[in-house]
Design goal:
This protein has 20 helices and 29 strands. By secondary structure, it is α+β, with helices and mostly antiparallel strands.
Length: 774
C-alpha cells in the first residue's frame, strides 16, 4: 500500500482478540508483591516507623523503609540524558524519601507473598513525622523560607528564565494614539493522564543482572535511570517493554522501576511485582502542571501586534521531574506563534510546592500557554473590532520564520490554508454575524484557536534513533527498533516506512513490538511527537542501505548490472526493459544457503537528528450555553491540521479524534482538586470528571498536507497537537455567545455561573435560610 495509505494496524488482531500480552499478563506465577507505604502528610520529615503489627501479618516477607535505601538521589524524567551536565535532569529524590514533599510520598515498601497481605501490612505501619505547613500556591511558595522543599532552592524557585527580543516600553507605546494596550491574567488547572493501564512492573535477577519488565514509553531511558539510582553499570540492567495500555507522557517517567529493581536485589533475585492502584496513580505519579499567566499586548487599530510581555508561573509540585523544561516550552510558543513589530518579553518561573508533582503530559506545556495566548488573541480582536481569524492570519508565524531562541526554521506551513478551510467548513462569517447580540437563557457562539508545535526536542536536547533490518529466508524482513508502540499506531507506520523504502509489501515486514534493551537498537522512546520524524529517518536510511545490499547481492547472483536493478512489490526487476527477474525469496534462499556466496544480509544505522520543524493546526468550536445552569453543549467541533505528509490517514484521524476528546476534558470538566493540607480530594474515576461518550459530539478531523523537506517522508508531528487548541476554541466560542471572557479552566458550571453572576447575566436571589440561589 505504501506511504499515504490507510494500512490496518499491524497489532489490531492481537489486541482485539485479547492475545496481546501486557506487563501484568507476563508476571511469573509466585512473584512477590510490593506495596508502597505512603505519607499521610504533605510536608515534613519521617522520624521513625513502628513495623511490629505489620510484620506479624501472614505472608509478609520484608519491609523496607526510607532509612534502608541507598543514599543516591536520582532524576526521574524521561529526557534524553547527555554527557553535557547542562543537559542532565535534577536528581532530587531517592528510592524512598525521608523528606516528605507531597501527600502520599513514597516512604516505605512492604513485600509479601500476595497483594492482600502486602496491602494489609502497609495499612498497619505506624509513622512518626516532623510536620511543616503545606503550601499549594506557587506564588506563596516563593516567599517561604523556613522549610524549603529542597535545600538547593531556598525560595522554592527551581528555575527562572527570560525570553526577550527587541526593545520597547509600554509606557511609551500607551501614548500612541492608534494603539490599544490590553492586559489580562489566565490560569490552568491540574489534570491527570488517566491512561487505562496503571503503572506496573516486575523485576528479577538473571545471571547476576537485574531484569525489569515494565509498561513504559522509554525502555532505554529506564535502563539508564535504574543504573543511576542503584549505582549499577548500565550493562547490568536489562529492561523489557511489552504492549502498553497508554501513557500520554505519564510513562515518560521512571518512578517505580528503580525501587522494583532494588527490591529484587535484596530478595535473592526473586521476582517482585509492583503495581499502582488507580487512586495511587492520581497522586503518586505525575500530573499536568497548573500554570498562571499574565499577558500584556499593544496592538494597532488595523490589527498589527506591536509588542507583548508576560510571565508564567508553573506549579511544579514536590519533585522536579521534567523541571523547568515544560514552562520553558510554553515560553517558546509565546515567542514563536505570533510575531511583533517591536518585540516581546516573557518571564517563566518553575516553583516547588506540596502539590502532586507535575511531569510530561500530552502537549508538554503548550496546552497551558495556548489557552492563555489564544484567549488573549480573542480579547484583542474584540478590543479592536477585528475578526479573530483575520487577526491571526495577519500576525501568525509564516513559512521561512527562523526562531531566534532555538534556530528552528519553519520549513513548511499549511496554517493559513487550515484557517481558510475551517472558515468555509463552519460557515464562520455568517455564524459570527448571526450569534451577535443574543439574549435569553440559551445562546450560541462559535470560536477558534490556533497553535504551532515543534517536532521532537532538537536543539534543546539530544535527538537520536537507530533501526535494524534483517533478511529472512523467505524474502521477508525483520524490523527492530528501540522506538515504542504505546497505542498510537507507531508500529504500523514504521512498517509502512520500511516497506515503501525497500520496495516490498507491508506483509513482508515483521516488526518487533516488544522492546528489550539487550537486543533493541537504541532509541530514546515515545514522546515529543518525535518518532515518525526522528525514528522515521533512522528507518529510511537503514532501509536504503538494506535495499542497496539486496541489489548488490542480486546483481552478482543473477549476473545483472546493478544500476539496472530495482525492487518492486517484493520482486527483483530490471528497469530497462521493465521485467521481473524473480521474487526476493529466491535470492534470499541463495544468500542464506549458497555454498559459494553465503551472506546474512542486515543493515543497522543511527540517525543523529539535528533538524526540527513546525506543525500547525486550528480548532473550530460551535457551542450552545445554558446560562442559568452554566452548562456548555458542544454543537460542532472541527480540527484542521498541517502535519506534513500523512503516513497513514486513518491512523492520523484517530490521533486527532483522541486528542480532541482529551482537549474537551481539559476545557470543560477535568480538575484534580486539593485540600488546604495538599491532599487530593477527587483522585478517583468517580469524582474526577472525565468526559464520557454522552459529553462528546461528532468529532471532525481534516488535514492540509504539506511536504516538509526535513521530514523523512515529508511528515511532521501529530501525536500531541490535537489536544492543544480545543479548550481555548471553546472558551472563545463562549465569549462570542455571551460577551463574557472566562480566563480560568475548566469551564465547568461552577466557573460559568460565578462569572455570569458577576456579569449580570443571571440574578442571585436570597432564599429561605439566607442561601443564595439563581
Amino acid at each position: 500500500m505504501g506511504i499515504g495509505q490507510s494500512l490496518k494496524r499491524v497489532d489490531a488482531y492481537e489486541k482485539v482478540t485479547g492475545r496481546a500480552k501486557y506487563t501484568d499478563d507476563l508476571a511469573p506465577a509466585g512473584a512477590l508483591v510490593a506495596k508502597v507505604v505512603r505519607s499521610t502528610i504533605a510536608n515534613g520529615r519521617v522520624l521513625a516507623f513502628d513495623l511490629h503489627k505489620a510484620s506479624l501479618i501472614p505472608g509478609v516477607v520484608r519491609i523496607f523503609t526510607c532509612f534502608d535505601v541507598p543514599d543516591i538521589p536520582f532524576p526521574t524524567a524521561g529526557h534524553p540524558w547527555s554527557t553535557d551536565p547542562a543537559h542532565q535532569d535534577v536528581a532530587d529524590r531517592k528510592l524512598l524519601n525521608e523528606r516528605v514533599r507531597i501527600y502520599g510520598d513514597d516512604i516505605a515498601v512492604v513485600v509479601a507473598d500476595n497483594a492482600l497481605a502486602a496491602e494489609q501490612a502497609a495499612g498497619l505501619i505506624g509513622v512518626e513525622y516532623e510536620t511543616y505547613p503545606p503550601c499549594t500556591d506557587a506564588e506563596k511558595a516563593m516567599q517561604e523560607g523556613e522549610h524549603p522543599l529542597h535545600e538547593a532552592c531556598p525560595d522554592n524557585l527551581l528555575k527562572h528564565t527570560v525570553s526577550q527580543a527587541g526593545s520597547f516600553s509600554f509606557d511609551a507605546l500607551s501614548k500612541e494614539k492608534d494603539l490599544c494596550v490590553l492586559q489580562a491574567n489566565y490560569t490552568t488547572q491540574v489534570v491527570q493522564h488517566c491512561h487505562i493501564e496503571p503503572p506496573v512492573s516486575y523485576a528479577y535477577m538473571d545471571s547476576g543482572r537485574v531484569v525489569v519488565v515494565t509498561s513504559t514509553q522509554i525502555p532505554h531511558i529506564v535502563r539508564r535511570v535504574v543504573g543511576q539510582a542503584l549505582g549499577l553499570p548500565f550493562g547490568m540492567v536489562r529492561v523489557i517493554k511489552p504492549y502498553i495500555g497508554g501513557g500520554f507522557g505519564n510513562k515518560q517517567e521512571v518512578l517505580y522501576e528503580p525501587l522494583n529493581a532494588w527490591l529484587t536485589t535484596k530478595l535473592g533475585g526473586r521476582a517482585v511485582k509492583l503495581e499502582l492502584s488507580r487512586e495511587e496513580t492520581f497522586f503518586g505519579t505525575r500530573v499536568r502542571h497548573a500554570m498562571a499567566f499574565s499577558i500584556k499586548s499593544a496592538i494597532r487599530s488595523d490589527g498589527r501586534l506591536v509588542a507583548r510581555e508576560g510571565w508564567a508561573r508553573s506549579n511544579q509540585g514536590g519533585y522536579a521531574s521534567h523541571g523547568h523544561s515544560i514552562v520553558a516550552n510554553a515560553a517558546n510558543a509565546f515567542r514563536m506563534l505570533y510575531q511583533d513589530e517591536a518585540g516581546h518579553h516573557f518571564d517563566a518561573y518553575t516553583v516547588y510546592t506540596n502539590l502532586s508533582s507535575g511531569g510530561a503530559m500530552r502537549g508538554y506545556g503548550i496546552p497551558q500557554i495556548i489557552f492563555a495566548l489564544e484567549s488573549h488573541m480573542d480579547d484583542l480582536a474584540l478590543a479592536v473590532g477585528a475578526d479573530p481569524i483575520d487577526l491571526r492570519m495577519q500576525n501568525c508565524m509564516k513559512e521561512g520564520y527562523v526562531d531566534p531562541g532555538t534556530g528552528i526554521t519553519c520549513h513548511s506551513s499549511g496554517l493559513l490554508e487550515c484557517l481558510e478551510k475551517g472558515r468555509k467548513a463552519t460557515d464562520w462569517d455568517s455564524k459570527r454575524r448571526a450569534y451577535q447580540n443574543q439574549d435569553g437563557p440559551l445562546r450560541k457562539g462559535i470560536g477558534m484557536a490556533i497553535f504551532c508545535y515543534k517536532t521532537g526536542v532538537y536543539p534543546i536536547s539530544l535527538e537520536t534513533a537507530s533501526a535494524r533490518l534483517l533478511l529472512n529466508q523467505d524474502g521477508s524482513v525483520d524490523l527492530q527498533l528501540g522506538a515504542t508502540e504505546i497505542g498510537q499506531g507507531g508500529d504500523t507506520v514504521f512498517t509502512q516506512m520500511a516497506a515503501e523504502t525497500i520496495g516490498i509489501p507491508e506483509s513482508m515486514v515483521h516488526i518487533q513490538s516488544t522492546q528489550d534493551t539487550d537486543t533493541a537498537p537504541f532509541d530514546t522512546g515515545a514522546y515529543a511527537s518525535r518518532q515518525t520524524y526522528v525514528t522515521g529517518m533512522a528507518i529510511k536510511q537503514t532501509a536504503e542501505q538494506f535495499r542497496q545490499k539486496l541489489l548488490r547481492y542480486a546483481a552478482g547472483y543473477y549476473k545483472k548490472e546493478l544500476e539496472n536493478l530495482d525492487i518492486q512489490e517484493g520482486f527483483l526487476v530490471e528497469k530497462d526493459p521493465q521485467k521481473r527477474i524473480g521474487p526476493l525469496s529466491e535470492m534470499a534462499m541463495e544468500a542464506f544457503y549458497s555454498l559459494e556466496n553465503a551472506q546474512h544480509i542486515t543493515a543497522e544505522t543511527t540517525h543523529h537528528c539535528k533538524e526540527n520543524t513546525f506543525s500547525f493546526g486550528v480548532c473550530f468550536a460551535e457551542i450552545e450555553v445554558d446560562i442559568p445552569v452554566g452548562k456548555i453543549r458542544i454543537v460542532n467541533l472541527l480540527n484542521l491540521h498541517d502535519s506534513g505528509i500523512l503516513i497513514n490517514p486513518q491512523l492520523a484521524e484517530a490521533q486527532v479524534h483522541g486528542g480532541m476528546s482529551m482537549g474537551l476534558g481539559y476545557g470543560l470538566t477535568e480538575q484534580l482538586l486539593f485540600g488546604e493540607d495538599a491532599r487530593p480530594l477527587n483522585g478517583n474515576l468517580l469524582d474526577y470528571k472525565l468526559p464520557t461518550s454522552m459529553d462528546t459530539p461528532e468529532l471532525q478531523a481534516r488535514f492540509v498536507e504539506t511536504d516538509d523537506p526535513t521530514g523523512p517522508y515529508g511528515n511532521k508531528s501529530l501525536g500531541e497537537p490535537p489536544c492543544i487548541p480545543v479548550a481555548p476554541a471553546v472558551r472563545n466560542a463562549l465569549l462570542h455567545a455571551t460577551g463574557v471572557g472566562i480566563n480560568r479552566l475548566p469551564l465547568n458550571p461552577q466557573n460559568l455561573v460565578e462569572h455570569f453572576l458577576h456579569a449580570g447575566l443571571i440574578e442571585a436571589k436570597t432564599v429561605e435560610g439566607g442561601r443564595q440561589d439563581v
